[in-house]
## 1
Amino acid sequence: MVTVVTPPSSPWTVAVENEDLALENFNRILVEEQRLLLAGETLPLLALAEEKTRLANELLHLSHLRRHTPTTPADDTTVAGRLASIQTRAQIAEQTNRTNGELIQIRLRHNQQALTVLQQAAQTATLYGPDGQSRPPTGSGRTLGQG
């Protein structure tokens, strides 16, 4: 029976691996956010935003930790794939986050337009008095036929 001994990982290697995994989780959150935005499901977005903020803060911490942890010569060869993965995942996160921001802006414009239409309709709505007869909307002080 052969026993494989894995050398202990250096602190820098662990930092790189943790950052890569955190970026993977962050990208999952961004994809879910995009799905909810496209489906028009706004209620779950608040909880997702909290998780997104938590993960973004974690990524800042992990990135800082990686940049300030000394490396060893062995780290350069063992972690090259992870560093490439971090770079790729960061680019994906940036693009997905930008797209999500654009989707949010579209939704905000749509909501603002709908609100404007409703406000205009409320201003021109026919009102009924206690006697059931229609009255002109208040505000103009003029009745039809007066100039």
Note: The chain has a mean pLDDT of 83.
## 2
Amino acid sequence: MTYSHVAIPDDKVPRSVDPVFQHALETYASETNKVLSVWSEFADAHFSFHPHPRSSSVGEIMTHQLLSERRFFAEFLGAPEPAASQVLPEERRVLDTSHHRTQLTVYLRLLEKSVPPTYGPTADVTWRGADPTLTVEAADRR
């Protein structure tokens, strides 16, 4: 898939020492590129937007995503957690949580912004050869 913004190009995905883990590295790179494409659609003025009083704002979701992934990766790698100030930079950076990426795509739609593709074309972005599975017939195509 081609993303509007790329943080980790395919040729920069590290090679795993053990081939069994290569898919995890490639998936992480792909998910990171999806997050960057979604996050890049928001202007700083949108950070305070929340669609309902009980909903988190765009900025709160991004902050939560960065902080929770900081803990996940530290535990996953058996490494110390970096300080929160190291994870919340002045400029936006990306890590992945598909739940929050999806949440933010809904916010983009509510703000009448373009929704970038993550796993396939959207109502806003498609390309020649895109093949969304919208019918039983489409699902049977090979």
Note: Confidence is low (pLDDT under 50) at residues 90-96.
